[in-house]
Please model this.
Amino acid sequence: MAKARLFRLWLALGSVFMILVIIVYWDNVGTAHFYLHTSLSRPHLPDPHPTPGPEEGKDFTSDVDEFLDKLLSSGLKQNDLSRRKTEQRPLLASPKPALSNMEENVRGYDWSPHNTKQNPDQDRLQAERRRVLRDFCANSSFVFPTKERSFDDIPNYELNHLIVDDRHGIIYCYVPKVACTNWKRVMIVLSESLLDRGVPYREPLDIPREHVHNSSTHLTFNKFWRRYGKFSRHLMKIKLKKYTKFLFVRDPFVRLISAFRSKFELENEEFYRKFAVPMLKMYSNLTSLPTSVSEAFSAGLKVSFSNFIQYLLDPHTERLAPFNEHWRQVYRLCHPCQIDYDFVGKLETLDEDAAQLLRLLKVDQLLHFPPSYRNRTASSWEEDWFARIPLAWRQQLYKLYEADFVLFGYPKPENLLQD
Model:
């Protein structure tokens, strides 16, 4: 009996070794690197899940999990030392990227410096945000779609917003219209996943926008299956346990206004053909429309905010395809009830939260968050934007985004939901 168990153990270890060799090979020829000696900067938090006993669930996959866990943790000291050496390089100022006057006006960037001093209450505020999120995820009386499913039930294609930096042990779930362009830039600098004439980018704002949103630039969870096959979920779970996980959110209704302004008030050929044309035909009863967005804008043919809200509330929209990521709910993008996030930032307090997060990640000497990206789409605009939207529509829209309001601690907009 003992010999048989020993044989099984050696067979399992041999299989794991061969798989790891293949993994390393694949990563060496891939677009991003999987570092076996990884610095894990995540603060040690109590594990909310019970740990099985020594014999319970002891099978081949648990052996693999344990082996990979030890392997990923083995290089902590060496990589920490190399990181400290790397992070000694001085921080350099970088000019703002060039923007057209129209884009500057609509997107509302503010590149002026702002005070980002540490607030002694920031740690308490962060703990409260995470507590609210955990409590409502555990509250059986608060129900929304996909809440009860497990992480294993999430399809791979729904994990495409989880960006991984193996060099520093970080996972970022990006939410469009929540400063995600600059957070993606930060992730590129940290992971060194993009080179400029053979040298990794050092300044976030030096990275061209078209490269920032190129999916091949980032290592995301949905790519794990192609790289690691049946071990992809095991690796995801190990990284989710070890790495620091963060996301940034904003008031859901304000995010919708920002998405509308960005995608339908600016000339965007892709969004015009894919979304504006169907909306204008369906909700404005227009049959003959220009083929290009520039012609449409010249003729004064634009999607109204009312058209956009009709589109979101139309049951046919979701039947045809999932919401576009720019207006898809955060709980569908980042799965906050299946993933225990270590840091929940908000756009409303971006300067303070970004500085606090970079200190937590121990990379604040390596880079700064690009200076005060501030979108002027403010919460005070909600009443103006929703003034011509029927009350019944506003109430339906709130129900559609209620989970995001509740999970992330945004107050219910009573002034928009009552006569």
Summary: Confidence is low (pLDDT under 50) at residues 21-64, 75-95, 107-116. Residues 387 and 416 are 8 Å apart (CA to CA).
